[in-house]
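hey can u check if this looks right to u? its 144 residues, i copy pasted from the old doc so theres a chance i mangled smth
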Amino acid sequence: MRNSSRRALLTAAGTAGATALAGCAGALLPGSESDAAGASADDPVDRTGEATVEVAVGADGGFAYAPAHVRIDAGTTVTWEWTGNGGGHNVYAVDGSFESELVVDEGHTFERAFDTPGTYEYVCTPHQTRGMRGSVEVVSAGDD
């Protein structure tokens, strides 16, 4: 009887673990879903024509930037603002051109003006393996 109880306990634990992982899959892979209009979360949000653009740090359960990908005009300033969710985050350019501090506090901001056209990819270094990444696509006036 002892072995059957152990098997039942292990089966229950395995089922609970699989169920928990299935429920968390979306949280572990932010940006993996498409919205109702068919646009992917990896498509840039068009913010051309705006002088400043805000991006939330620690959005969607604490492990995403929102919007993750933006398209802006050259000369636009992007301001990242921490939500206080998901622990310590930073904004680190993959090419090393900019980097914020590692911060936990809600309301902290980091900003950068983008003057040169191109695509600037960035990650949260502690959470990049959880998919916390973003990009700023900078276009010249009239290129959009």
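The chain is about 20% helix and 30% strand.
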